[in-house]
Every structure is written in C-alpha cells, then in structure tokens.
Amino acid sequence: MSVVQQVVVLGSTGSIGVSTLDVIARHSDRFSAWALAANRSVTALAAQCRALRPRYAVMMDPDCAETLRTELSGDCDTEVLAGADGLNYVATHAEVDAVMAAIVGSAGLPSTLAAVQAGKRVLLANKESLVMAGHLLMSAARASGAVILPIDSEHNAIFQCLPQGDLAQPRLDGVSKILLTASGGPFRTWSASAIAAATPAQACAHPNWSMGRKISVDSATLMNKGLELIEACWLFDVAPARVDIVVHPESIVHSLVQYVDGSVLAQLGNPDMRTPIAYGLGWPQRIDAGVAALDLVALSKLHFEAPDEVRFPCLRIAREAAATGGTAMAVCNAANEVAVEAFLAERIAFSDIPHVITAALEAVAIVEPTSLDVVETADRDARAIAVEQVVRRRVAGGEK
Ligand code: NAD
Ligand code: MG
After folding, report:
1. Ligand 1: which atom is nearest the Cα of residue 126?
2. Which of 120, 166, 175, 318 has its CB surrounded by the most CB atoms within 10 Å?
C-alpha cells in the first residue's frame, strides 16, 4: 500500500460521492482521488476533474464520455474512459487501495463485485448490490481477502458497536439483537390517504438527511429500511429475525447492538454522511470528518417508536423477501427501482409502489443466486413485470 492511499470514487457526482471528496480533500496527505466515475453528469465530473486531477474519469454513458473528453482536452490530462469496462478497469486496478462504491441502484453491482473480487478495501454505500447479490459479494470477499466497510450510516454504526479483531470481520459473540434505527421519513406522521397522494417533491423532502432522489423515495416508503435489513443480514451474518427496526425521528442514534448481558451499545452523531465515510476511509484509525460535535444538551430529547407496516407496506414486503431468500431480494430490489423511477416521473402514484413490487415477487420464479448471471436474469425479469405493472396502473389511474 502506498503512503498516500489511492481512492476510486464510483458515483463521485452524487450525494455520497461529493461527501467522500470533501473528506478526501481534508486529508490530502493521506488520500488521493485516483479515479472518479459517474453516469451522465458531464459538467459536474469535469469540475471535479479540474479540481482533483485524477488519473482517470469514467462516464457510464459513451456519448457523455466523448463530451467530457472534448471538454477536458487542453487544460486537464485526466484520461476519460467509458462504460462498464471503464468502471471495472478503475475498480480493480493494481494501483488502487480503496473503492468507494456509491453508484445508485443495481447499476452499481458489477463494479462493486469486481472491486471485492480484486481484494480492494471497499467502502460500500451501494446497498442495492448487497441486497441483490449478498451471497456472491460476501463469499467473494472471503476468497479475495477484500475488506468491506459499511458506509450506510446504520451499518457503519453497527460495525462500530460490534467487537472487532484485526481484520474488518465483525464477531457476533454475545450479540442477541441488532437494532436498526429508521427516521420514519417525511411521511411518518401522515395519514394513509395523505401518503397515497404524496408528490415526488414531498417524498424527496427528507427531514434529516440530504440524499439522492432514489434513496429519498425509499426512505419515504420505508423500503430503504427493508433494504437495510437485508444489508445487515449479509454484512453481519444474522437471520432477519435477529434484526429489529426502531423508528427514531431525530436520526441521532444511528443504530444499536444489544448483547446477552443486557448491554446495548449505540453510535450517535449528527446526521452527516461524512462521519461514516471518514470512518471507512480512515479505518482502523479515526480521522476528522468536518462534522460538528454532537450537542446533547441542545438536543435534550430523543424519541423512539415502533414502525407502522400498515401505512408503510414496503418494509413488510422486504422482510418477507429476506425470509424467502434466493433471488427474491433481487426481484424486490429491481421492481422497487422501476416503481421509484415511475413515481419520480409522475407516472404512478406513491401508493402504487408496493403493488408494483408485490406483482413482480408473485410473478418471477425465485431460484438460488448461484452466479451474477442468475441474479441479473432475476433483475431483468422483475423489471419486465414491473414495467408492465406501471403501464397498467397508469392506464387504470388515467394519464398522470
Ligand atoms: P445520487 O443519486 O446522489 O448519486 C448517484 C451517483 O451514481 C451519481 O454520481 C451518478 O452519476 C452515478 N450513477 C447513477 N447511475 C449510474 C450508472 N448506471 N453507472 C454509473 N454511475 C451511475 O445517489 P446517492 O444518494 O449518493 O446514493 C448512492 C448510493 O449510496 C445508493 O446506493 C444509496 O442507497 C447509498 N446511500 C446513500 C446515502 C445518502 O445519504 N445519500 C446514505 C446511505 C446509503
Ligand atoms: Mg441508511
């Protein structure tokens, strides 16, 4: 490992990507952005390249890659690559120490898996890849020796509250339960009828966190917590029944671990993703994240309540998919991605989202996820059913 660690940021123009570059910039003596990658945001990626001078920039979209190449020619010698091959090239390169996996959705799976197979330190924000292919990712990490550090704030909190050996392999000695906190999202106190008619702008107005639009909608449906339940099962090797969800509207306690002796360990902090990102970058050391210290006296009160699976059926759907196992989780994830995209485009109502996911789970055959191919087939089949459902609901509900 070089003195300055070479970091690849996949999804560098997104919410997690920008926070990651902020932490890297605070520690230029320790970390350097070796490669940056995004989907189609040419202007944002060009600005990041000019500021950080990475060796490579990858645009998933080949036309956007060409535009970026033209844009940078003359004043920035960052080499521009394109497509899935470009992502895999930077995620596995021998000079790279750490890969921040912060692409949104199933699009992040191949590059995340490639980084794990290459034995990199993988800072995992892209929860969808674990939901789809947890078995493949965790067994690839065991085979390659890759260290997977959870960046999702809840999982990072749990990781911090578990006993750790020298390797980033959490041990579950004496653990009785994992308590996963949920903010409850923007509709926590809304009636079922108000939730049903919610708009994309309302769904994306999260009370505590500023995030990309897809995860914001997932937080509003509580599917985000369902995906996180599955994520926790893979990361910490626990059964779904050992993970409880606790709604905590302030998002200060990021999650907790309950031990057999009655102890409960928690990790607290202001809701700022730079804390888990800095933990992942610096691990096993602690480094400054630029996050304000927690003022408990100013906060004065913290609240906890049970989740409501009647108003938020996506949580139940995800829990059932976790219990079913196999490709059910990939199907659930893919149908959710289609439903969220359709909702954001105002093609279906907020209340249609769980119906689209349920239809896919009922229609697609569930098998053992033995290879990336099998997972990707389940993903494709689920998307086809979900798209059909979106069209049907749009016709039934009138053009929106
Ligand atoms: P975002 O929408 O803000 O950013 C997504 C990034 O991925 C962008 O850089 C975009 O260009 C890139 N991207 C999108 N599609 C791509 C594709 N097909 N190929 C290559 N790049 C692509 O999303 P975000 O909020 O930063 O979330 C990123 C991931 O982190 C998600 O999986 C999310 O669940 C997870 N996460 C986010 C937060 C948060 O606070 N934002 C917290 C926990 C976990
Ligand atoms: Mg989270």
Report:
1. 32
2. 318
